[in-house]
Amino acid sequence: MAGFETIQVLRSVLLQCRRPSHRAGRLTRTSLPGIAFIALLFLTLTRGASAVPPPSLAPTKAPTVHNYAMYLKKPSSLGFAPDQTYFESMLVRLEQDHVDHPTTKELYIGVVKEVSALLKDAKISSVKLHALAINQSLPTDIINLYGDRIDPHLLWYAMINGLFLGTGDRFTNFWTPAEYKALNQVMHQSLAGTGMLLGVEHTTLVVVEVFDGAPAEKAGIRAGDEIVEINGKTTKGMNPELAASLIRGKPGTSVTLTLYRKGGAAKGFSVHVVRARIVVPSVSHRMLPDHIGYMRLRIFASHTVTEVRKALDDLQKHGARALVIDLRYNPGGYMMDALGICSMFARPGSKVLVTVDSSGVHHIVRTTNMEPAFPKIGSGGVSETDLPIVMLVNGYSASASEITAGCFQDNHLATLVGEKTFGKGCAQEVLPLPQGAGCKITVEYFLTPDGHRVQNRGIEPNVRVAMPLRPLGRQIKDVQLQKAIQILRSSLAASAKATVH
Questions:
Q1: Residues 141, 173, 9, 432: is their CA dihedral positive or negative?
Q2: Active-site entry in 181, 420, 424, 440
Q3: Which of 3, 56, 132, 453 has a Cα at 20 to 30 A from 401?
């Protein structure tokens, strides 16, 4: 579609095997489960239907309707003015581009559901809405029915959301300009806010991680805390995007969060957090005892491959002879970076994944001829070096994380330890839209190298170790990490014994 603005902050990268796009406006493919992961201030976790959730977080089985309370009070806060032309362009895109090719009727059923949610928030009866025929005139019928009581742009926005709801695909999303800006900022690691990783428990926001040195840590917020109010507004029933908009702000300003902590005050307590620019490194690393290196990947962002290379170089300099790669709570990101990570460890030409497009055609994606991660140990990739690797995964390891985990498992590069992964085996294309909005549409499914389906099933670890939510990476309480260390110690001991003999 002509006139689509090119947003430079997203990289125009595609996996090598994929067909080139002939449609204008496409930028990149991403594997993030949704905008819920990428709020301006924090990453919000949603769950897939396939894996057993940790007790404090609940799964999301299907896309859900939006909350329109904020926009009803101030329609201009939408930040753009969608109309019938905008709506029709989204209808065409979803029908043509989505891997499942939803029908107009299916998409219009979603429109009715979404407009019904808007009417509920506006305290307007939806009886007449449900009496409308689901046909081509449905959008104009809705405008004629409610356009005098609800801002028409808000109605069109709800109907556009309804189209995306009608796909039945929780990974296909429409974003307002503010939400799309949030995506761009997180993927390029420039955040203004508090520095927390949040999870959603039905209607409750739960702190999963507090970044070191971030404002949230300085304010005394801990992993496991529940956020019950933001600046005096209850978070019950609040969608992640609205929560993000309330928490984010200009550096130097403050936000008041009311928290509930198990074992703490029964009525909760409040903290004032001063917002700041947050730089979230996608990779962190350290040495563990017995020459074991530990590397955590938080997200597959634009510089993750470079950061991994630096981390591995540093671990090698400090004598690492075995490696833990931690992908827990990693929601995914750019698929090209997952390919880059796999190419560091596997032999050139190894299978990384198999993609299946909307025509049912299978495409094999293979590793590139990248320099091996440990060149001083071997020259053909880790698969030829006997470097012991354990990869930690859990129910929040999603998409690009699952691509990486599947590649390492099927190519026998690592032992997977933890819990079944999220189950997002599909790829989206991120599209910039007129007036600064954006969307993400599922265009392909993927399988592991051995042909195992990931979508809604996840990847089973080789060694299953259950663990409550938090804490990550702490040896004393982290039973999954302890198991990884135990496996690597045994592997190193066996290798040393074989060398002696």
A1: negative
A2: 424
A3: 56
